[in-house]
Write a structure and sequence with these properties.
The complex is a heterodimer of chains A (258) and B (851). With 258 residues, chain A is an alpha/beta fold. Helix content of chain A is 37%, strand content 25%. Chain A has 9 helices and 10 strands. In chain A, helix 6 packs parallel to helix 7. By secondary structure, chain B is of the alpha+beta class. The longest helix of chain B is centred in the N-terminal third of the chain and has 48 residues. The chains are: A alpha/beta (258), B alpha+beta (851). At the A-B interface, helix 3 and helix 4 of A face helix 1 and helix 8 of B.
Amino acid sequence: MTALALPIDRDAADRADGVVVMAGGLVRRYGEGDTAVEALRGVSLGIEAGRMTAIMGPSGSGKSTLMHLLAGLDTPTEGKIVVDGVDITALNEKKLTKLRRDTIGFVFQFFNLLPMLTAEENVTLPLQIAGKKVDRTWLDELLATVGIAERRNHRPAELSGGQQQRVAVARALVTKPKVLFADEPTGNLDSSSSKEVLGLLRRAVDEWGQTIVMVTHDAGAAAMADRILFIADGRIVRDLEESTAAEVLAAMQEVSSR
Amino acid sequence: MTRVALKGLLGRKVRAVLTGLAVVLGVAMVSGSFVLTDTISKAFTSIFSSAYDHTDAVVSGKKLVDYSSSGNATVSQATLERIRRQPYVAAAAGAIADLSGDSTHAKLIGHDGKAIDHSGAPTFGFGIDTSQPRFNPLKLEAGRWAMAPDEVVIDPDTAKNEHFSVGDTIGVAAVGPVQRFRIVGIAKYGDVESLGGATFAVFTVPEARRLMHIDGYTTIAVAAAHGVSQDELAGRLQRLVPSGTVKTATEQAASDKKGVAGFLTFIRSFLLGFGGIALFVGAFVIFNTLSITVAQRTRELATLRTIGASRRQVLRSVILESAALGALASVIGLLAGFGLAKGLSSLFGALGLGLPQAAPVYATHTFVVSLLLGVVVTVLAGVVPAVRATRGAPIAAARGGLPQKVRSRRATIVGVVLLALAAFLLGYAVTGNRLGSGSSLLALALGALALITGTAGVASRLVSTLAWLFGAPARRWGGAAGRIASENAVRNPQRTASTAAALMIGIALVSFVAVLGKGVHDSMNNAISGQFPAQWIVTSKNGWSGYPVSAGAALAKAPGVARSTEIRGDRGLIGDTQVNVNGVDPSTVDGLYRFGWKRGTTAAALAELQSGGAILKETFAKKNHLTQLGQRFVLLGSSGKRVALHVAGFYESSRIAELLGGVIVAQREFDAAFPRAMDQFTLIDGTPTKAALQRSLAVFPDTKVQTHDEFVKNQTSFMNSILNLLYVLLALSVVVSLFGMINTLVLSVWERTREVGMLRAIGLSRRQTRRMIRQESVVTGLIGAGLGLPVGLVLAYAVTHALSRFGVAFELQATTLVKFLVIGVAAGVLAAVAPARRASRLNVLAALQYE
C-alpha cells in the first residue's frame, strides 16, 4: 500500500495520545420511575487509533447500547463522549450529521444496502450525499481490496451475504472515517463469509491504520481484535489485549457465569 | 440523492403504478374536461364566426327578451333596399336565421312520422338568399340550393342518421301543420363536423317567411364599400336604421356566443369539480401509500442518515420521489384525458345532451393546468409522510423490524376542530333564507369539505369499533382466517382509517346525491301532480317549446273529450323585467288547472281576464310592486307589441316545478302581444283514448299526448338522467379509492410476508390465505361505507332542511343503507383480488427467510 492511500491522519491521532474515542461515566437509562431499565451503568473507556477493539458480552449486557452511544446514534442519560476531540453529546442534529459524514463509518449486521442501487453506487453513496467527488483510484483500490471489483455493477439481490457485507464495509471505508463501527458484522453470515469479512476489517487496520470498534458475540471474531472489552450488566468487566479464541471463550464463560 | 429517489421509484414499480393511478384518473378528468369544453367552444365559435365571414355589419330587429319562441322584431324589405342604396355599402343580403333565439324553428319529420328532436337541441329553419353567396355561412355538400317553394336543403347529420338523400321528400313542421318538401341539397354549417343534435332546414326566403310566419328578415348582413371600416359602417347604419340593432360582425359573433359561453363555463366547472373530487380522493391515497412506504423504509432511510445524509436531504429525496411520481402520473393522466373527452361527449349524448363536435382542441391551458395540478396534489399529499421520514432516528438502521406506529393525537384534534367548523358552516348555509346565495353555497362546499376531512381525522379513533362491528361476521363464520382478518384490520388503525377515508369520500357524495335526489324528485312529483287535475295533457315533443294553436281546436273535437283548454306560453317584458307569460281561455281553464289563489282572489277573477285583467304570481307581483288590484301596467311582447293590462288577482304555485308563469292573461290579449302565439299545454278531461287524441293530432307531429301520471313521471325523469350522470362521475372517485385499498393491502401483505409464510407453514391453506386477505379488505370497505354514509346523510339532511320550504323532505329508506353497505363489501372484495392471490402464492420457505 502506498502512503497516499493512508486513510488515517496519523499526526492528529498521535496528538490525542492515540485515543480517537473517549467516554466517561456513561449511563443509559430507558423509561422512567419504577419501570426504568439501566442498559449502561457507568462505563468509561478510550479507543486507541489504528487498532481493532472488540466489545463482547452476553445478550442484554449493553454492548450494542454502548456502541450506539459511541457512534452518536443514541444519546447517553449521563456521561460524556469525545470523538476525534469533539464532545458529541453536546452536538445538535446538524453537527451530528456532519460527524457521521466525515468522521464515522458504519457496518451493520443486516448489511442495509439500498436494493435499487448497484454495489458501486452503494459504496459511493456517502460521497454523493456529502456532495464530494469520487476519487476513482481510491474507489478502484477499495473495490479490489474488498473483492467486489468484478461485481461492482450487480445489485445487492444478485450478491451473496458475504459479498453484500463486503460492499457494506467498502461503503463504510470510502470516506476514510476516523473510526469505523461494526455492529455484529458477521452475525448474519456463514463461517467462510465471516472469515472473509473479518480478514477484510483486519487488513484495513493493518494496512491503512483504520480504527475499528466491533460489537460481536463470536469468540472467533473477537480473536481478530487487538483489544477485547467484556461487558456484563451494563459495566465493563474485563479488558483483554490480543487473545486467542480459546482465551476469549474462557473469559466469556467467566463473565457470563458471574 | 436524486438518483436514490428516482431509483427508489423504479425499484418499486408496482407500488408506484398503483399510487400513480390515483392521480392519473383525477388528472385525466381535468384534462378531459378542458379538451371537451375547448372543442365544443371551438365548434360554437366556428358556427358563429362563419355566419359572418364576409360580413362587416349586421342589422337586426331589437331584441327585447331572451328565449322567446315567437321571436324578436324583424327588419323589413324596404330597410334592406335602403341599405343597399347607401354609397358606403358594397352589398347587403337579408336572411331568416336566428342562431341565438328560438324564433326560426322548423322541425324535420323522420320516416316514422315523428319530429326529429334530440332532446331539445335546436331545430333551425333558415331562409337564405343564395344569390349572394358571400353572406352564406352554409357549404353545399351535395345537390343545389332551394329555388322553388317546395324545395329544401338539409343538414348532413339528419341526412345520414335519418337516411334521407337528395331527391327524397321530407316533412317540415313550423308554426302550422306539417308540409312536405323535396330535398334538393345537403349542406354543412361552416367547418363544424356535427351540430350536436341540432338540425337545420334551408328554404328560399319567401318560403321561410310563409312557413315560420315571419315578416321581412331577422338579420341583414352588410359588406362595407372599399375603404370603409366595420365601425364606421356600423355607426352610419345605426343612424340610417335607428329602430334596429346594428352591430359589427365581430360584435355580433361575440354576442351570439355569449349565451353559449355561459353554458360552456358551467359545464367546464361542473366537470372540473368532479376532477377535483377525484384528485382529492387521490391525495388521500397518495398520502396513505407514501406514509406506509416511508414506515416500511425506516431502516433504509435511517441507513442513509448514518452514512451522513442530513434531514433535509432525506426530506428532499422523499419529496422528489413524489414529485417525479406526480409528474409521470400527470403526463399519463393528461393523455388519458384526451380519450376521456370522447367518452364524456358520448356520456352526455347518451343522457340526451348532444354537444356539437369539431376536431379536438388541445389548448396550452389544458397542459399547464393538468400537469401542475397533478404534481402539486401529489407533492402536497407527500409532504407529511416526507417530514415523518426525516423524524426517523439514525439508530433505527441498527434495529431490525418495523417501528410500531401510534395513532396521531394531532390528527384527532385537527379532526375534531374541523368537525366543529363543519357544523358551524353547514348551520350557516342552511339556516335563514340564504340557500342559493353565493355565501351559502361557499359555506356549504367548505362545510362539506371540513366534514369529510374532519371525519377522516377522527376516523382512526372509530376504526376499532367499526372493525369490531363489521368484523363480527368474519369472526363468527370465517374460521381462523376470519379471526386473523378481523384483527389485521385494526392492527394499524391510522392506516386502515386513511384507506377507508378515501372510500368514505366517494360513498358520502354518492349517498348525499342519492338521498337529496330522491327528496327533490318526490317533491317535484307532488308539486306537478297537484297543479293540474286534468286527466290528459298535450305538449310539444320536448315538453317546453310551443306547438301550433290550431292543434287545440283539433283536440277539442276528438271523440271522448269532455272538456279541454289550451294554454299559450312565451316570454314578455313588464318594465325591465323579463317574465314568462301564459294565455288561458278563462271560460274553460278553471277545473283543469288548479290555481292556488292568494289574497282573497277566487276563480271569479278569471272572468275579469276577458276585459284586460291579468292574474299575477304572488312572488312576481311583490317583486315588481304590482300588489294593488286594478293597478295598471303594460306588457311588452317579444316582437315589440304593447298590451295594456290591469291586476285582477294573485295566485301561487309550487316554488319547485311550476307549470305557469308570472303573468296570466286571456288568449285575446296574449295573441295581441305575441303575433306568432304558440300553445304550451292543452289540458283535457273526459274519456278519450290515447289513439283518438293522437289521430286528431296527425298533422301536428311535434306534439305529445300523455296521461296525467305519464306527464308527471316524464317531467321528473330528467332528474334521473342528472342523477345517473352524477353517479357515473362520482364513480370515478370510488375507483380511485379502490386503487388506494389495493395499494394498502399489497403493502400490508408485503410487510407481513414472514407472518404469512409462518401461517402457511403451520397449515393455513391458499384458500384460507385468500379469504383472510379478502375479509380484511371487506372490513376496510365496510368501514369506508360506515363512515361515508353518515357523512352523506348529514349533508343531505342539511340541504333538504334548507329546501324544506320548496316541499323537499328528507327521507331515508332502508334500501339506501343496504345499497351502500353492499357497495362497501363489493369494494372490499374487488380490491382484495390481486393482493389475496399474491399472498396465497407466496413461497413458504422464501417467505419465512424473508428479511
